[in-house]
Amino acid sequence: KSDLLIKPPVYKRVMPNGEIQKLIITEETAKIRPYAVAAVLRNIKFTKDRYDSFIELQEKLHQNICRKRTLVAIGTHDLDTLSVSPFTYHSQAPSDIKFKPLNKQGVYSCTTDNHLKHYLHIIENKPLYPVIYDSNGVILSMPPVINGSHSKITVNTRNVFIECTGTDFTKAKIVLDVIVTMFSEYCENQFTVEAAEVVFPNGKSYTFPELAYRKEIVRADLINKKVGIRETPENIAKLLTRMYLKSEVIGDGNQIEIEIPPTRSDIIHACDIVEDAAIAYGYNNIQMTLPKTYTIANQLPLNKLTELLRHDMAAAGFTEALTFALCSQEDIADKLGLDISATKAVHISNPKTAEFQVARTTLLPGLLKTIAANRKMPLPLKLFEISDIVVKDSSRDVGARNYRHLCAVYYNKNPGFEIIHGLLDRIMQLLNVPPGEKKGGYVIKASEGPVFFPGRCAEIFARGQSVGKLGVLHPDVITKFELTMPCSSLEINIEPFL
Amino acid sequence: MADGPVAEVLLRHLEAADGGLDSAELAAKLGVDHQAVVGAVKSLQALGEIIEAELRSTKRWELTAEGEEMAREGSHEARVFHSIPQEGLAQSELMRLPSGKVGFSKAMSNKWIRVDKSAADGPRVFRVVDRVEDEVQRRLQLVQGGQAEKLGEKERSELRKRKLLTEVTLKTYWVSKGSAFSTSISKQETELSPEMISSGSWRDRPFKPYNFLAHGVLPDSGHLHPLLKVRTQFRQIFLEMGFTEMPTDNFIESSFWNFDALFQPQQHPARDQHDTFFLRDPAEALQLPMDYVHRVKRTHSQGGYGSQGYKYPWKLEEARKNLLRTHTTSATARALYRLAQKKPFTPTKYFSIDRVFRNETLDATHLAEFHQIEGVVADHGLTLGHLMGVLRQFFTKLGITQLRFKPAYNPYTEPSMEVFSYHQGLKKWVEVGNSGLFRPEMLLPMGLPENVSVIAWGLSLERPTMIKYGINNIRELVGHKVNLQMVYDSPLCRLDAEPGPPRTQGAV
């Protein structure tokens, strides 16, 4: 019936000829890393490549789905080196644990080794560390930290005992399924996995691996509709079967029953099946069509205003800069003579460098740093930026908000206050805000503050509110930003002008 | 300079001269610096055919500094000779004299002096002859007087070996009368003036020819930043395609909107400190739409809406954690949620271009902050084919017509596609964007109708800008270390025009 050249494997869990391997979880362990699953790969034949691949798969799983071993840790052991089961998944005080870690000589106490330290933090704060012993008291491993060398797997290993322990049961089961399905190919009885039993503290026992096959029913027209193709249900079933999702048409001829193997834990919704069908069909074979969606575009008013202003700022002779939104605390506080707590700045946790301590509350430091990095350019330097600053705001759902600011600086042998003032006048003219205290007009009033030179600072009031300040920068500010010439600046919030 | 005194004198001499004159000779005659004469020659040349000037190279002999000293004071050996009195001089004392060491061996080989080694208090030097001719000094003085040719070849090279003489190449002009020769140089007018226009006197005046190879004076203008010029173009493209701009005015976002609402599980590695900037203050979101939050929680932990879910214990405190948004898809989620609350459903197209933050390793092409471009279409019955069609329209406006699609993975889209275009310069297929259909687990809890599909795609703003403007290091484009000259010089952003000649070395 299937036109496949290579038949998909059918994974089976089989009961052992003799005693089943058992792993018992003790009560103490249940408090720290409560879940465990296990299985056996019987009569496996490793080559160097298969062995390397086996180790690599565990590392990759640890990095990704196991989230660096915090959710699940994998242990693989040479069953023939261990004594008869049951294995015990116990927890002990660190000082009581002595074992021979993988790739090392000697008997160790677990707190000293360098490699172990990497994962030690996962259980470090717990009073007891999890350990897996065999019935002779030989340690298999200390999850999630490392495996013992006694039961280390080699190329010659024939029988592998796999245990996955952790804090997420679903993931532990998935991880086990992934490993055993991938490597059961090399067992004498191909694609079979020997069952193991795990006994929980409450006495309940489970048999693993689950290796569950699941059946899903999807309508053929759903797949056609989502991908944008017109295949018959039979063809769709063929496409899916080629992706190793064995499918057949059932029912009224429009339904497709799909068997989902244990290797596909990523299939959790019909859309995952739709993608597989599309991949089998070939993305580049799908016909490109245009949606009939009729819409009229709208600009965001704030961005529309920003675009208009940008062009006229350049027409006024100023050059646009694009500076970082993240900076150091110093940049927005100390260097401006302000206290950081007064800035209502948003703080980042654990910044790697000072450059990522806070989000900027003013555009001025960015422009001053741009000038400092372009000292060799001819004077005057006239820069501007219209972009967002961030401040804390408890009226917003996240507790912070952006404001769209416009900032301009004039850097020359003379401070050029009249030029910056002239620029403000021009901006107000463009925004159709007349000069004067009358309703809807703007006015500037003398002001003071550490950022500006005393007597040369003014606050700007427009449409009834303070929208910003302009002035000659204070020499302290100029020197703290490693500049040498006089400088004047203007910064306003443009949102009141929407 | 053409109307300067040197030029006028030169013309007068030229008039009187037979055939022509040499610039260096004239300079010596006038007692001026040779360069002044050269300057006059050049400016006369610029006036047209008044003179003809031929560049000549002559070699001359000149004394070195030491040679000049010797011409003045005499050669070392002569000085040695003259410092020895009748009764001779102790050799040790002689050696201490300034010319002693050098002069001694020369004087010895000239047989002007002799050494008595058997003298009582050490070797003693005596004159052999009564007087000497300081031949070296005489020769040097000849050269100084400009008569080096009187010396033989051998004598000259001997002096050169002693580093007293050097050969100097002198570039001079041989100036002769030109076809339009005249001793009177009329003043060349530089520019037309209002008086000339009104009086008409421009008709009688000669005007200095323009040098069309020189640059003009650049107007005193402001400039727009290249990245933002590209942003303007992308905005324009979306508007032309009927897309409405989404609000994105919040750099700070909660994990809920940035991850959970997008069906990205809480244990996903991207939610690590390593990739995401989490906040210390404000650390947690103050408000979340709780009904919706519960639906999201259920979908993650138990499934629903046709999904198995992820089956892990979903935690509210994890969702509350504030961060700097890692993509603008969080703004898209907010917009789609708002759209879902409006009944009946209206098909919509959205876009946004704004800043996002990633806490990743930084290098020449990656910064912690960059701009993401995102386009979204929400309508009934949208397919993967529609997504590809929209992408083709979008990229055509960018001048990209050859597209190929490859399966990809995103936590919140399924199916997902990477979009590739063929780069003529690099002669290979390069990734130009990422796209997909949003998962039902994301859309249905919002309240969007079941048969509504949402297609979306995204790309970064920096990458096409760096390719367009030939910039290799992102720090030269974004941030305060930008090269302002590059901003001043950057051309118009014409996304669908052919790329111009490369302006930088090793352009990407």
Task: Give short descriptive properties of this protein.
heterodimer; A: 498 residues; alpha+beta; Phenylalanyl-tRNA Synthetase, Chain B, domain 3; Phenylalanyl-tRNA Synthetase, Chain B, domain 1; BirA Bifunctional Protein, domain 2; 3 domains; B: 508 residues; Ribosomal Protein S8, Chain: A, domain 1; Arc Repressor Mutant, subunit A; three-stranded antiparallel sheet; 19 helices; 33% helix; elongated; disordered C terminus; Phe-tRNA-ligase_IIc_bsu (chain A); metal-binding (chain A); EC 6.1.1.20 (chain A)
Could you explain the architecture of this structure?
Chain A is an alpha+beta fold and 498 residues long. Chain A starts with 11 loop residues before the first strand and ends in a 5-residue tail after the last strand. In chain A, the strands form seven sheets. Chain A has a seven-stranded mixed β-sheet. The model of chain A has no long low-confidence stretch (mean pLDDT 90). Chain A is built from twelve helices and 27 strands. In chain A, helix 5 (220-227) packs across helix 7 (270-281) and helix 6 crosses helix 7. In chain A, a hairpin with a 5-residue loop joins strand 24 (442-446) and strand 25 (452-462). Chain A has helices spanning 27-30, 48-63, 114-120, 169-183, 220-227, 233-242, 270-281, 301-315, 329-332, 364-372, 417-430, 475-480, and strands at 12-14, 21-25, 35-41, 72-78, 87-92, 98-99, 108-109, 129-133, 139-142, 146-147, 160-166, 192-194, 196-199, 205-208, 214-219, 247-250, 255-260, 319-320, 326-327, 347-348, 358-359, 381-392, 400-411, 442-446, 452-462, 465-473, 487-493. Chain B is of the alpha+beta class. Chain B has three domains: 3-61 and 171-177, Ribosomal Protein S8, Chain: A, domain 1, CATH 3.30.1370.240; 65-165, Orthogonal Bundle (Arc Repressor Mutant, subunit A); 227-489, Bira Bifunctional Protein, Domain 2 (BirA Bifunctional Protein, domain 2, 2-Layer Sandwich), CATH 3.30.930. Helices cover 33% and strands 21% of the residues of chain B. In chain B, strand 13 and strand 14 (413-423) form a beta hairpin. The longest helix of chain B has 15 residues, at 226-240. The two termini of chain B are 49 Å apart. The chains are: A alpha+beta (498), B alpha+beta (508). At the A-B interface, helix 5, helix 7, helix 8, strand 18 and strand 20 of A face helix 11, strand 7, strand 8, strand 9 and strand 11 of B.
